[in-house]
Amino acid sequence: MRDADYIYAVACIRAKEKTLLTDADVQTMVGMKSEKEVLSYLTEKGWGNGSVDADMETVLSEEEEKQMKLLRTLGVDERIIDTLFIQELYHNLKAAIKEVCTGLDDGQAFYEHEKYGKNELMQIIREKDFEKLPEDMAAVAKEALDVMLTTRDGQRLDVMIDRACLDAIEKEAATTKDKFLADYAETKVVISDIKIAVRAADTRKSLKIIEQALAPNRRLDVKGLAIAAANSRDAVYEFLNKAGFGAAVEALKDSFSAFEKWCDDHVMKTLMNQKTNIQSSGPVVAFFLAKQNEIKTARIIMTAKANGFSNEIISERVRKMYG
Question: Contacts from 305-311 at CB under 8 Å and sequence distance 24+?
Answer without folding.
Answer: 305/32, 305/33, 305/34, 305/35, 305/37, 305/38, 306/35, 311/30, 311/31
